[in-house]
Every structure is written in C-alpha cells, then in structure tokens.
Amino acid sequence: MFKRLATVMAVAALTGGGVATGAVSADAAPVHNTATSAASSAAALSGGSICYQAHVQKYGWQSIVCDGDVAGTTGQSLRLEALEIGVSGTGTVCAQAHVQKLGWQDVECTSGGSDIVIGTTGQSLAIQAVYLWRADGISANAHLHGTGWQGWKTGSDITVGTTGESRPMEAIEITVP
Questions:
Q1: Are 73 and 171 in contact (CB under 8 A)?
Q2: Sign of CA dihedral 63, 66, 69, 71
Q3: What is the DSSP string of 27-50?
Q4: Where are the alpha helices (DSSP H) in the chain?
Q5: Average pLDDT in the 27-31 region?
Q6: Which residues, other chains included, contact 87 with Cβ-Cβ below 8 Å and sequence gap of 6+?
Q7: What are the DSSP E strand ranges found in 21-144?
Q8: Could you say which residues form the signal peptide (predicted)?
Q9: Domain total for the chain?
Q10: Structure confidence at residue 177 as a pLDDT band (50, 70, 90)
Q11: Model-level pTM?
C-alpha cells in the first residue's frame, strides 16, 4: 500500500466521512496498486461507499477518491482513459464506458469485494460517456473537454458524458444515496 493512500484512508476512517482529496494535481504521482483497490478503500469508510480511481492521459492511475470527490483532472485538457470502481455496503453497482473509436464496452458489475474497470489503458483512447446503474439510485457529474461540468444526474440508471460528439471526459464525480 502506498503511504499517501494509507494516510488518506486512515484519516477518512477516523472522521467517518468521505475522502476529501479532490482532483489530483499535475505533479501527483500515479498510485494504482492492485493490493490497494477502490473496493478496499470503500470498505475502509463507514457506511455505504463508492470509491473510484481515474487513469488519465500522461499521468496514468491517480489516487483513489470516494463518495463524490473528483477523479481525473480539470483545466488541463487531459482525457480520462479508464475508471476503476469499488463499492462497500451499497448493493450492486454496474458501469459501462463509451470509448473513443470503440463505442460502448461490456457492462461490468460489482457488489463489493472486487473492483470493476471500464475504459482502456495503453491505447490513448478517451472515455466519452459513462453509464451507471444501481437499484437504489446513483449520482454522477462529468467534466467534458470544451464544456466543463455537465451537472449532476441522479437515478437508478444514468449516463454522463456524450456520444457522437468526439468530446472526451476529463473528470468524474460519483455518489450513492
């Protein structure tokens, strides 16, 4: 486990709240590590949580964030290429990415204990839209290249981002009620 992530998760566990790290700055090192997953981060938080980690152009995997925090970058024109999602105490969550040149990928689902990954790595392709499903509802907000934040969408099945506009997503925020 990376020391920085361990510190963030320890603070979150002590305060009983979400991780308030926000978007990772340009000088932050990627922290993707299969031993420290979004699922284990979600489990460390009290109550039902959703944690996620963005793979961003030029930077690779960023730090894990949870419960509405920003994953990705804003103001840097860098595409979101993949998203790893883990849940704890939320029931089943499903996700699907619409990827540049590839279209919609297969739907991936998790109910905790393991992460799902949508999008691609090593192919320099942008996620353009994300579909999310949860029976009890889910909320998300996407930051799009040239547009900015779309605004929060909430429902049992939602789509953020765009298709057919060649507009890459740059960041995302996700919460569960």
A1: yes
A2: positive
A3: TPPP--BTTB-HHHHHHHSSSSEE
A4: 3-15, 38-44
A5: 37
A6: 39, 42, 48, 49, 50, 51, 93, 110, 111, 112, 176
A7: 49-56, 60-61, 65-66, 71-72, 80-88, 93-99, 103-104, 108-110, 116-119, 127-144
A8: 1-28
A9: 1
A10: confident
A11: 0.79
Amino acid at 51: C
| Structure-block tokens of residue 90 | 């939320």
- Per-residue pLDDT reduced to its tens digit, 45-58: 656 899 999 999 99
pLDDT in tens, 113-125: 899 999 999 999 9
Closest to 129 in 3D by CA, of 82, 169, 102, 174: 169
Residues 6+ apart with CB under 8 A from 134: 90, 91, 92, 93, 94, 156, 176
Strand 169-175 to strand 127-144: parallel, antiparallel, or no bridges (unpaired)? antiparallel
Domain ranges, residue 57: 3-175
